[in-house]
Amino acid sequence: MTGRYTTNSFHREPQKQYVSQSQITERRPKSPGPVAGAGEITNTSHGFTIEIDVFHFLPEEIKVVLTDDTLSISGERFESTGDGHTLRRSFSRKYSIPEDVHLDTIRSHLTNSGVLIINGSRKGWRETSISTYQPTQRNVTRSATSIV
User: Could you tell me the Gene Ontology terms of the biological process aspect for this record (predicted)?
Assistant: First the structure.
C-alpha cells in the first residue's frame, strides 16, 4: 500500500489515504486525464515485459531509446483545441535494465489498441539439441568350431 495525501472538496486539510499502486489515478491541475503510471512490468525467469498505455500518441510521437543499461521511453503530442488553445501531452519513463538481460533482444511494438509492449530475454541456460554420433558396426566374421 502507498500512503499519499489527498484533499476533498469539503475539507481543505490534506487527509492521508492508503491505496494500492494500481488505484492511483491522480490528476494534475487543469489536466483532462489521469497521470500515467510506470506501466505494467512483468519479470520472469525468461525475461521481462513492460506494457504502457500510449493511446493518445501516434507511433511517430513515441521514442524508445536504449543507452547502456537504461531504457528511455518518451512521447510528446500537441493538439489544437479549436478555440485558439493548444493542448500538450507528454510522458517520459526510464527503466534500469538488469545485468542478466541480453540487451540485443530488447524489442518494442505498438498494438492496435494503443499499448506499447517492450520485451527482453534473460541470459541463462538455453535448450539446445545435440546430434549424437553413433559409429557403424565393424563387419566381424565369426567362425564357430564344433568339437565332436
Answer: protein refolding; response to heat
Residue type, 32: P
pLDDT digit string (tens) for 87-100?
898 999 999 998 89
Q: Which CATH architecture has domain 25-121?
A: Sandwich (2.60)
Instruction: Tell me the pTM.
Output: 0.59
Sequence spans of domains, the chain: 25-121
To the nearest 10°, report the CA torsion of 60, 104, 65, 20: 100
User: d(Cα 72, Cα 95) in Å, to the nearest integer?
Assistant: 7
SS3 per-residue string spanning the chain: CEEEEECCCCCCCCEEEEECHHHCCCECCCCCCECCCCCEEEECCCEEEEEEECCCCCHHHEEEEEECCEEEEEEEEEEECCCCCEEEEEEEEEEECCCCECHHHCEEEECCCCEEEEEEEECCCCCCCCCCCCCCCCCCCCCCCCCC
Look up residue 79 and give its three cell numbers: 493538439
